[in-house]
Amino acid sequence: MTGPARPTDESPAEASGGDPTARRPDGDAPHYDVFISYSQHLDRDVATVFQRGMENFGRPWYRPVRLRVFRDMTHLAASPDLQGDIERALARSRWLVVMASPLAAASPWVRAEIDWWVANKPGTRVLLAWTDGQLEWDREAQDFDWSRTDALPREQMRKLLAVAPGCPRWVDLRWLRAQIDERGSVPVNDPRLLADVAEFVAPVQGRSKADLIGHHLRLRRQRNRLVAATILVLTALLVTATALGLTADRQRDIATERQLAATSRQLVAEAASIQDARPDLARQLLVEAYRLSHTEQAVGALLGSGSLPRVLHTGPTSGALAFGPHGRLLAAADDGGVTLFDTATGRAVSTLDGPRRFTRSVAFAADGRMLAEGDNTGRIRLWDVSDATAPRLLGSARPVGDAQHVAFAGTAPLLVVGTGTQSVLLDVRDPDRPRITGGSPSAESALGFGAAAHPEGHLVATGAGDDRVRLMRLSPSGKLSSLHTFAAPSATLDFSPSGHLLATSGEEGVVELWDVADPRHPVLRTTLNNPSPSLFPVLAFAADGRTLATGADDGTIQLWDLSDPLRPQQGDRLTGHTRSPDALAFSPDGRILASSAADGPPRADDANLRETTVRLWNVAGPHGSSAQASLPAGQLSGQPFAPDGRTVVTGRPGALWQVGGVPEPRRLATLPAFNRGGQSFSFSPDGRTLATGHPLGFWDVSDPSHPRRRDGPREVEAPQNVVYGPDGTLLAAATPLGPVRLWDVRDPDRPRALGTLSGSGAGPSSYTGGVPVAFAADRDLVAAVRKDGGAVHLWDISRPDKPVRTGAITLRNAGAGALTTSTDGRTLFVGDTQGTVTSWDITDPRRPRSVGASQRHSGKLTHLAAHPTRDMLAGVDEYGAIRLWDVGDPAAPREVALLADGGSHDTTGLAFSPDGGLIAVSTMNSTRLWHTDVDTILQRLCAESPRITESQWKQYLPDRPYDPPCA
Questions:
Q1: CA dist 955 to 941, 948, 949, 962, Å?
Q2: Angle, CA 213 vertex, CA 210 and CA 215 arms, to 5°
Q3: Which of 593, 609, 600 is nearest to 577 (CA)?
Q4: Which residue, among 553, 633, 319, has the nearest Cα to 448 in the 3D structure?
Q5: What CA–CA distance (Å, rounded) separates 125 from 109?
Q6: Burial class (CB within 10 angstroms; exposed 0-12, middle 13-18, buried 19+) of 466
Q7: What is the spatial distance between Cα 294 and Cα 937, in angstroms, rounded to a whole number?
Q8: Which of 6, 302, 706, 805 places its Cα 20 to 30 Å from the Cα of 175?
Q9: Which residues have CB under 8 Å from 147's CB, separation 6+?
Q10: Distance of alpha carbon 169 from alpha carbon 173, whole angstroms
């Protein structure tokens, strides 16, 4: 063995014991089973691997090491007597293993270790491990062939053979050196290493090699079985722990989902509580509520969010408001002039600059190209607003001392200017040089009074002193002549669009309605009792002439239904303003009501005054509405949309309207109607043909701007409703007095009558536009209401010329009024006369099965429509209530939303667009459109409201980090 301080290229041999500190009973020094002698440079790695193999042989991993091997100098004391330390280690060893190699043969330390062993220990306990060089045994000479052997020291081996004759025990480990050179290490369980190690371990332990290897293999099998069992147990524990972990994660996820859903519902409730006072913040809360969790409350609130008023911050306005004739432009007067707003976006388009005066009034000309504004100095300015983004001053005049009211006289180029004491007329044909053409006598009082011009321009009403109104005729030449003066409140005046009614208001909130059809003899029709008092209430008529809005000092706005002027009915009360409205104005289509009030933040120039805010309210007649758009036409069929969803057809009047890709719906073409009550028009699935009822006919609408009438059937047929089958080859025509007939319409120019659904007919509600027949998707199945409405029949139409009734659905204590099927055609939804929606499984039409019901409507169901891509159902009842259900589980329909639509009682149609992005609801004279695509609604809410502030966030979401939803 080489020592620790070799004089040449050698270093100390390494030694380690499985337990070098182990003690024997006969002394305190450690004892070793084997002493390995080797040359440091050549045999160190081989000795290391061989030592590990000896120490691990014949023992499982859980038992202590049995062999103790000396292979290192680290446990020798650092002393100058290194040779003595080595000899003492040899003396405590039972076996000597010599790593045979040419370098070992030349090492004086290896020679000295062999010499010491021969002199002091049995020579039979020397083992040879051949690691390099040549080693050859001569059997005849019983000695090594020294002519060929260079791996052993010759002199020391002859001494060994002299005391222990015969071939010593040795193994060839040269392969081990090659493996170490290639791979760096050899596994201790390598079969070759086990066999070679066994050659040495067997004599050391006094056992046969076969017994030793067998014992080792048995221990290895035991170990493997134990390891396998341990792995199985650990795997089972891991699987169990994983399952428990996944369960715990799922429970945490469920808990988190529930918490988010609860927070979402809370935000929806918070938004509802502030939607009138703080609609912008309510919008932000609704967006965040949906972002947290798609609860039915959040979805419903989004679908109904169109009823939230929009707030326009205009600065220190005076309160004067006017809509342009097309409704897209709103003029709001302020201290410095007039701001023009785009009503679609709510954004300021431009500001009319001028001298800093107090603007009192604004008005648009009939064509919308000119705007007049009057200020407190009496100056009138005329503006060209044909390009609203770049208004141009045309001219100005100062005919009076205070222009409190301005109004264009119908389509005439005349402007009525009211001063509070008199009215004057300006001829604005040459707007560069407006000139006075006439005026009214001065009133006895200098108090401010109203002025209004008749829609046709031939009549002017103006205040004429305390509680008096003067009616004057306006001649084409611009002269005013007094017709009649009568006692009436005169603070605010407004003619109805028809001109037959004049609304007047005065002190103590009195509002009177006067019939001025004969202006020489006006008749008081009624006095409105405003629910909230007001000193000088402002008022405005809607375009339908049946709706009036009045303001009150508490900031509320009362809508009135004047369908019967003798018995006006209160409609909705709009709340949100905190101070009395200064002005009210309806858009030309009557769908938007604008109001202004000085209830904004304190003004920068005077903290005692407040900025004015303008609110835009969605209304439908005397009620609030959540619809996003409106058509001035009504009566929809069950299939009013073209397949691309961009075009819709109405039946009263018959017309095609573009509703997609345009800011506002626009008429494309007019269709002649042969029924004064309106027509039923339905689009074919390919969008190229319109079928019409009463009488039955067809239109080519490949170009919807230029529809062309086709040659239709010559039979006398007057169907109330027409409905296409899914593939467009069949048409069901329902007549009020006869059964439903099927038509082959593959060639619209030559439709062919097929079979009839005997006993079917118009149900109790179909006369109002309901469709008593529904195709079951692409199945050869159709449902039709029995003529008396008491049942729904299912028909097999695989042979449409001979339809066969397969099953029936009978409703208890109610009649069937509306039908629709799910998109897969396996569920039929029936609306009845008691307001109940029932769902039926018609997978087997011979045995339809009731699966669920919802009774949320208070009146009979007149229309049902199924969403084309989602599990959503829409229904409308006789009172105009529009409800949406989630029918993902037909057994338990869940109401999602109640859409505000003004409570129309004459609903005539209900339909989803083909992509489901719109829902349309019609009356006899109008059609409202709602967006049902949530992404579109979210974008609109974000565009209509400023981002939620950090302080607002902390108020409503204190436990969540600030993360505004519209960032």
A1: 20, 11, 10, 11
A2: 105
A3: 600
A4: 319
A5: 19
A6: middle
A7: 14
A8: 6
A9: none
A10: 13
Distances in Å between the Cα of 802 and the Cα atoms of 576, 751, 755, 778 are 62, 17, 5, 18
Decide: 707 and 699 in contact? Cβ < 8 Å: yes
Q: In a 10 Å sphere around its CB, with 0-12 CB exposed, 13-18 middle and 19+ buried, how is residue 887 labelled?
A: buried
* Integer Cα distance of 882 and 910 in angstroms: 9
3-state secondary structure at position 952: helix
pLDDT in tens, 828-840: 999 888 888 999 9
Within its chain, how far is the Cα of 570 from the centroid?
Answer: 38
Q: For 93-138, how does the pLDDT look when each residue is reduced to its tens digit (9 = 90+)?
A: 888 888 888 888 888 888 888 899 989 988 888 888 888 889 898 8
Count of residues making up the chain: 967
Total-model pTM: 0.71
State whether residue 631 is helix, strand or coil.
strand
- Amino acid identity, residue 923? T
User: CA 757, CA 768: separation in Å to the nearest integer?
Assistant: 21
The helix (run of H) or strand (run of E) holding residue 263 is helix 209-274
The single residue listed with the structure tokens 């900025």 is: 611
Query: Which residues sit opposite 618 in a β-bridge?
Result: 592
List the one residue out of 379, 368, 363 whose CA is nearest residue 331.
363
Q: Centre a 10 Å sphere on the Cβ of residue 55 and count the other Cβ atoms it contains.
A: 24
d(CA 967, CA 646): 31
* Cβ atoms of residues 408 and 414 within 8 Å: yes
Helix (H) or strand (E) holding 127: strand 126-130
Structure tokens at 947: 């981002």
pLDDT of residue 279: 93
Total Cβ atoms within 10 A of residue 142: 11
Structure tokens at 966: 């519209």
Please give the Cα distance from 724 to 685 (Å, whole number). Answer: 7
The rounded distance, in Å, linking the Cα atoms of 500 and 487 is 18
CB neighbour burial string for 438-460, b if at least 16 within 10 angstroms, e if fewer: bbbeebebeebbbbbbbbebbbb
Question: 453 phi and psi, to 5 degrees?
Answer: -115, 140
As a whole number of angstroms, the distance between CA 56 and CA 219 comes to 11
Q: How wide is the angle at C-alpha 18 spanned by C-alphas 17 and 20, nearest 5°?
A: 45
Token duo for residue 7: 């004089």
Among 333, 331, 341, which residue's Cα sits nearest to residue 315?
Answer: 333
Residue type, 419: T
Q: How confident is the model at residue 12 (pLDDT cuts 50, 70, 90)?
A: very low
Can you say how many angstroms the Cα of residue 257 is from the centroid of all Cα atoms in its chain? 16
pLDDT for the residue numbered 406: 87
φ/ψ of 40, rounded to 5, equals -55, -50
Categorize the per-residue pLDDT at 6 as very low, low, confident or very high, splitting at 50, 70 and 90.
very low
Q: Is 302 helix (H, G, I), strand (E, B) or coil?
A: helix
**70 confidence band (pLDDT: 50, 70, 90):** low
Lateral strand order in the sheet of 451-453: 451-453, 459-463, 468-474, 480-487
The pLDDT value recorded for residue 56 is 64
Tell the residue number behind the tokens 């719109």, with chain if given.
918
- Write out the two tokens for 29: 């020094």
Q: Which two tokens stand for residue 641?
A: 């949309």
Q: What is the dihedral of CA 169, 163, 117, 130, to 10 degrees?
A: -30
